[in-house]
Amino acid sequence: MSGGGGGRVLFVVVIAVVVAAVVAGFLALGTPQDERERRLDQVRVADLEALRSAIVAHCRREGALPDSLEQLARRSPLPVRMTDPVGGRLYGYGVIDSTTYRLCAVFDFPTPEEGDARFASRSWAHGAGRQCFRLRVTRPASGTSAEAGEMLNDPVLEGAPDSVP
Questions:
Q1: Could you give the number of structural domains in the chain?
Q2: 20 lies in a domain?
C-alpha cells in the first residue's frame, strides 16, 4: 500500500503550492484591506478635487474664498462631500490669504509610482498620513482665451504635512 503515501505527498505539495501562490499574490498586490485603503485614498483625492471646484465656483459667485467648509456647504449649489469617507471628519481647510487656501486629508498610502494606472492624476501626489495642498485662485490675464473674470486655480503640493486645518 505504498500508493497511499505518494497520494499524501502529492496532496501536501499541491497545498504548499496553493499557499505559496496566495502569499505571493498578497506580496505583489497587497491584502484586500490594503486595496480597500488605496481605493479610499482615490476617493479622498476625488473629494479634494470636487472641493477645489466648489471653492472656485464660490469665488465666482461671492468674490472671495469661503471662511470655512461649513460656509461653503451652506452656500454651494454643488453637492460636495466635505468629510473623509472613513470616520466622517471634515477635510482640512484654511484660508491663507485672499487668494490662497489649503485643503488637507489623511491618506493611508503614498501616491503610487509614475505609471500606476490606479492613480492617473499626479497633481494630487501625496505621502501617507496628513497631507495639505496649497492652492491659489487667480484671475486670467486680459487677452487670454479664458472668459473674463473666470477663476483659475494652481495647486502646489506642500511637501510635508501641515499643522493648519
A1: 1
A2: no
